[in-house]
Every structure is written in structure tokens, then in C-alpha cells.
Specification:
The longest helix is centred in the C-terminal third of the chain and has 25 residues. By secondary structure, this protein is α/β, with parallel strands linked by helices. The chain is globular and about 55 Å long. Strands 5-4-3-2-1-6-8-7 form an eight-stranded mixed beta sheet, with helices on both faces. A five-stranded mixed beta sheet has the order 11-10-9-12-13, with helices on both faces. Helix 1 crosses helix 3, helix 2 runs antiparallel to helix 3 and helix 6 crosses helix 16. The structure holds adenosine-5'-diphosphate (ADP). Adenosine-5'-diphosphate binds next to helix 11 and helix 13.
Length: 400
């Protein structure tokens, strides 16, 4: 069976999934794996569709010093141990800049374009692009597709897309891009399938994982996001600060003598739930803890989500549905319940039993706003885009 490999390359890990292409539209997940500890204590782990472990192998840092080496190791294992024949590779790429509003087939020219956005996402973009470069060099005939976290938000109005700074900065790319677009696109598609009447209305989706944001959907399209120029804005996250007065940054530099690199490290790695609690970036740990700082960090998280629910509802001119997704949104009934309480004033009312049972629809019959918890699947979204693009290319080439 032909397969699609989906790659999601982070700073020290390479996550991968393999989907079999079955029939006209079917994609079947066959392998889910990752190499983490790249350059320090590399470890390849993968499991099959039934969650059965397929491999758990440690490597020395010299064997897997960087992402190109990790790509090679994952590729070799998939070929040799699993015998997969790849039809294409789909990549998660955080930034498509102002130009890319949809996934794109990769070649050397496109890759060079995407390298221009490295300054816009210096922590993520180089990692995302590294395996692409490796595969272009090693497997030039293998079709590759880039799917962007920003693309789904490219239809925002100019008013929503701007910061109130001189226009020349906007022209050079300082814009409110928004991220987690693949997740929102997937959830929007699910809503179309499971509840078309909700999908055509005014919906807020809260992607609450270790990275967290919220998106306002109107008729299934993104019109506003809590994330902006970088993945730091909006909600407090596991280790990222969320919305912060730019004056705080000026204070850190001018008064505390911090360098740009130190501020970056602080804002990305030491803030959010971890910074507030001083205990953990993981909501599970904080829920278990009876330390007052853990309680406070969660109170703050829930409070900010409630504030943004109001903001995004304003951007939509009202609200028909609110959808929870990603690690916290999908799994924590307690956090969902606390968040819904914050925007109860909009007419939202939870069905507590359905919420505790982890059902898809969790609003009560009396609720004026439909409440849902929908599992996201960014990798499946990437595989779908990749399949569509290589099929369209084939049709184009055969002149049909
Ligand atoms: P990412 O893909 O951004 O790494 P995920 O969407 O997998 O993140 O979410 C990871 C986070 O989800 C964890 O850090 C943890 O805080 C939270 N999480 C996962 N399971 C639960 C749970 N059962 N209860 C509360 N939080 C959870």
C-alpha cells in the first residue's frame, strides 16, 4: 500500500506518523512515532494503530546529533522494519508568512521562500525546514508538501490583521498571523460533518494544549485568533507568557539589563503555568497539587480564557457554539467546567454528566450556546492536504 509520511519537527524532537492511502479518500493511520532527545539522549519510539509498541531504541548523541540525522533514522526504520513505500511526505511548517494561504508542493524555490520567514519564527521555522532540505537532497523524486499553522487564518480582515504601528512594519511582515491553524481547520471540518447547523454559525474553538490559543470561526472560516505575530500572544500557556504589556519587555531590557536572547528564553520557557506556579507546566500536575500556587496558576489560566471568550464573541457579534480541543480541552472535564462558568453570562450551560463522561456534546438542553469537546488531529489534516495536492498534481500533469 502507498503511504504518506507526516513529519512534525520541533527543537529536539521529530514526530512522525504514517498513513496508508486506502481507496479514493480513505487515509488509515498505521504508525505514530517520534525521536526525542535529538543531540542529547536520542530515542526512537513508535506504535501501531492498535497502540502496540513497534520499537523503543536508544541512540548515542553522535548517531543522532541533529534533525537531518533524525529524519534519516526514522526513514531507515520505516523502510527497513516496516517496508513502507512512501508516496509523499507532508510537513508541519509553523510559518507560511503573508504569502501562503494554503498548503504548497515543495521544491528548492519554495523552500528558499520559506527560509525568509525564519526571523518571524526563529525557534520553530528552522527545525521545520531542516527535514525538508534533507529529503530534497536525498530523495529529490519524493513529493513533499508544506502545511502551515498560519494558513487557515490568512483570510482575516485587514483590521484584525494589523497592529497599531506604522504601516511599513506591516508591509515587511509584522502582522497578526495566528497559529494552530491545522487544528482549527480540522475541527471546523469535523463540525461540518457532525453538526452542520453549528458549523455555519458563530463558533469559538479553544485549542488548549501545551501551546494554547482560541479562534473565532464564522461559517467555518477563521476571523480572529488570540495568537498574533508569534506563538507568544493571547492565552497563558504551559511555559509561554501569553498577552503581556510590551512595556514589561522594555522594563526587562532597560532596567534589568536582560538581552534579547534572555527575554526570549524567559517568555517562551519560564512563564505561563510553569512560571506562575513554580511547580509544573502540566495541568495534570497542577490539578493534583494542593499548593496554593498551583491553584492560582489554574485560576489565572481559566480567567484569561473567560476574558478571551468575551473578546472573540465580540469579534463574531455573538456566539452559537464553543468547542474545546487539544490535550487540556479534550481531557479535563474540570477545566472545561470552570471555563464554561466564566462565560455562563453569554447563556452557556453545561451538562455536567455529559462533560464528566467525555461526550462530544456537553451543553445542557437549556444552553443557548452549544458546547462541544472535539478531539483534534493535525497530522490527519496534513495527510489529507498532502494527498489532495499530489492527486491534483497528477491530474494536472495528465491533462485531465
Ligand atoms: P502539544 O501537542 O501542544 O504538546 P497537547 O495537545 O498534547 O499539547 O496537550 C498537552 C497538555 O495537555 C499537557 O501538558 C497537559 O497539561 C494537558 N493534559 C493532557 N491530558 C490531560 C488531562 N487528563 N487532564 C488535564 N490536562 C491534561
Amino acid at each position: 500500500m502507498d503511504t504518506i509520511l507526516v513529519l512534525n519537527a520541533g527543537s529536539s524532537s521529530l514526530k512522525f506518523q504514517v498513513f496508508g492511502i486506502a481507496g479514493t479518500n480513505g487515509l488509515q493511520r498505521m504508525v505514530k512515532g517520534q525521536i526525542d532527545g535529538v543531540g542529547t539522549s536520542p530515542r526512537l519510539r513508535a506504535m501501531g494503530p492498535d497502540k502496540r509498541p513497534l520499537v523503543d531504541r536508544a541512540y548515542s548523541p553522535d548517531e543522532v546529533p541533529d534533525l537531518p540525522a533524525a529524519t534519516h533514522v526514522a526513514g531507515a526504520w520505516l523502510r527497513e522494519a516496516q517496508g513502507f513505500e512512501l508516496a509523499a511526505v507532508g510537513h508541519r511548517v509553523v510559518h507560511g508568512g503573508p504569502d501562503y494561504a494554503r498548503p504548497v508542493r515543495l521544491d528548492d524555490l519554495v523552500l528558499r521562500h520559506l527560509e525568509r520567514y525564519i526571523p518571524l519564527a526563529p525557534l520553530h521555522q528552522p527545525n521545520n525546514l531542516a527535514p525538508i532540505r534533507t529529503l530534497i537532497e536525498r530523495r529529490p523524486d519524493l513529493p513533499q508538501v508544506a502545511c502551515f499553522d498560519t494558513a487557515f487564518h490568512r483570510g482575516h480582515s485587514a483590521v484584525a490583521d494589523h497592529y497599531a504601528i506604522p504601516e511599513r512594519f506591516y508591509a515587511e511582515g509584522v502582522r497578526r498571523y495566528g497559529f494552530h491553524g491545522l487544528s482549527y481547520e480540522y475541527v471546523s471540518g469535523c463540525l461540518r460533518d457532525i453538526a452542520p447547523n453549528i458549523a455555519s454559525g458563530r463558533v469559538i474553538v479553544a485549542h488548549l494544549g501545551s501551546g494554547a490559543s482560541m479562534c473565532a470561526l464564522s461559517e467555518g472560516r477563521s476571523v480572529e485568533s488570540t495568537l498574533g505575530f508569534t506563538a507568544l500572544d493571547g492565552l497563558p500557556m504551559g511555559t509561554r507568557c501569553g498577552q503581556i504589556d510590551p512595556g514589561v519587555i522594555l522594563y526587562l531590557i532597560a532596567e534589568k539589563g536582560m538581552t534579547a536572547a534572555q527575554v526570549q528564553d524567559l517568555l517562551y520557557r519560564e512563564c505561563g503555568l510553569k512560571g506562575l506556579s513554580g511547580i509544573s507546566n502540566d495541568v495534570r500536575d497542577l490539578l493534583k497539587s494542593d499548593d496554593a500556587r498551583a491553584t492560582f496558576a489554574l485560576d489565572h489560566f481559566v480567567y484569561r480564557i473567560g476574558l478571551y471568550a468575551g473578546t472573540l464573541a465580540a469579534s463574531l457579534g455573538g456566539l452559537d457554539a464553543f468547542v474545546f480541543t487539544a490535550g487540556i480541552g479534550e481531557n479535563s472535564a474540570e477545566i472545561r467546567a470552570r471555563i464554561v462558568e466564566k462565560f455562563g453570562w453569554l447563556g452557556a450551560e453545561l451538562d455536567h454528566a455529559a462533560n464528566a463522561a467525555g461526550e462530544l456534546m456537553i451543553s445542557s438542553g437549556a444552553s443557548r450556546i452549544a458546547l462541544l469537546a472535539v478531539p483534534t488531529d493535525e497530522e490527519l489534516m496534513i495527510a489529507r492536504h498532502t494527498l489532495n495536492l499530489i492527486r491534483a498534481d497528477k491530474m494536472g500533469r495528465s491533462g485531465r
